[in-house]
């Protein structure tokens, strides 16, 4: 959140002048980003042989990636059809992943691994405690995806795992329920009680 620095405020004057000097907007977020950049450069300069990731991510407060339910009382049928695809246009899988993590209370800095399985990007967080696939999964890809995810869970060996998929990404309009059921059946057959939940966003 771009909290503005006030040069008229004595305690913020130095920070505001610094923001001006580096030609950045006068706000605390920009000041923090510059401090992180410089801290990273200093660490790398002082320890040139160290393999340290000094990168960072910046998140901005935004609206949900999911469409709010706002039915048109004069055309309820059109409202229902419009709500079938509940993801707003131009939102990426990463956007959905971040929102999912925030809504489930999972820290955004939780260790994450990524793999491509059956053409889909699959995220494993917390050593497989959470596994997420937010792509568009065709009915013909279910077997390979389900078995591939189950194989990866075998490697990661979490005590329990929760799996999330994009609801509108499962199959096509005519076979969405069957696609979801088949994928769940493969995963539960392989991992049984170790699967805490299979859900969709």
- Please report the number of helical segments: 6
Assess the beta-strand content as a share of residues. 5-15%
- Helical percentage: 40-55%
The counted number of beta strands is 5
Alpha-beta content class: alpha/beta
Shape: flat
In spatial order, strands of the major sheet run 1-2-3-4-5
Summarize the model shown:
The protein is α/β, with parallel strands linked by helices and about 200 residues long. The chain contains six helices and five strands. α5 runs parallel beside α6.
Write the layout of secondary structure elements.
Blueprint: H1 10-21, H2 28-46, H3 76-83, H4 93-103, E1 112-117, E2 120-125, E3 130-133, H5 142-156, E4 161-165, H6 176-191, E5 195-200
Parallel strand pairs: 3-4, 4-5
Antiparallel strand pairs: 1-2, 2-3
Helix pairs in contact: 5-6
Account of the protein in words:
The protein is built from six helices and five strands; from the N terminus they run ααααβββαβαβ. It is of the alpha/beta class. Strands 1-2-3-4-5 form a five-stranded mixed β-sheet, with helices on one face. A hairpin with a 2-residue loop joins strand 1 and strand 2. Helix 5 (142-156) runs parallel beside helix 6 (176-191). The mean pLDDT is 88.
Task: Kindly list the characteristics that best describe this protein.
alpha/beta, 13% strand, 5 strands, 6 helices, 40% helix, 201 residues
